[in-house]
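Entry:
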Amino acid sequence: MSNFFLNNTSLNTTEYQLFKKGILDLVLIEKKESHTFWKNPSIYNLPIITEELYTKISGQEEQEIYRFIEQQLKSCEVDINTEEEANSFCKSECNGFLGIDFSQVQLNENKQVKNKTDYENWCYMFHSKPEELLIKSENIATIHLADHHGKKELGEFSEKLKHCPYIVNIQSTDWGGKKLIRKINADNSIDLVLFWTEREYALKVFTTGRNQKETEIISKIILKKYNK
C-alpha cells in the first residue's frame, strides 16, 4: 500500500479558477487499488474552500470537486506536510503529495503529484513491483528472421524470448554491439544484440510498452532474464 497526502498549502496559494482546474486535474487520476489518498480535516478551514468553493453556484465541475474531496480522499487526523512526517506515518518512503501549486512547499519534486502524468511517473519511480504496471500480450510473440548466416543463433534465442509476455514481435536487424540491450527506440521497440556470437547478430523486439518508461522497465526484465 502507498499513501498520498493532499497538501493544503499547495491549494491555498492560487485563485479560484486555477484551484478548480487543479483539483479537476487530480480528479482525472486513475488511482491504483493499493493506493490511498488522504486529506486532513483542516482543509475545511481553507479560505479557497470556505470563501470560494462553497459560495459558488454549484455546477457540474463543483460537484466533481465535492465528490473527490468527500469520497476519494480518506480523512487523516494527522496533518502530514513534510516528507519526514509522511515517512513516519507510512513507515516507508514510498509516498507522495497531491496538490496544485507546490512553489511554496519544500518537497521532493518526484513526489509532487498535480495530475495524471505526475501520478504515472510516481508509479514508475516508486512502485515496488513496476512490472505490475505493464500490459501483457495475449499471444506468444511472432518471429520474423532474415535468411542469413546468423539465422540459427537468432532463431534459438528468439524461441526463448518469444515467451516474454511483454514482447509482441521479434525481427532480425543489423548486427553489432557489446551488450544485450543496444538501444531503446522511440516506437517502444528495443534493439538486442547477441554479443556472444561471432558476428554480434541483433534483433529488434516490439514491446507492449506504451511509453519510454514502460519500455525501459521491459528492457530491465529482458536484461535480467535473458542476459548471458
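The beta strands are 2-6, 35-39, 74-75, 95-98, 112-113, 142-144, 167-173, 181-184, 189-193, 202-207.
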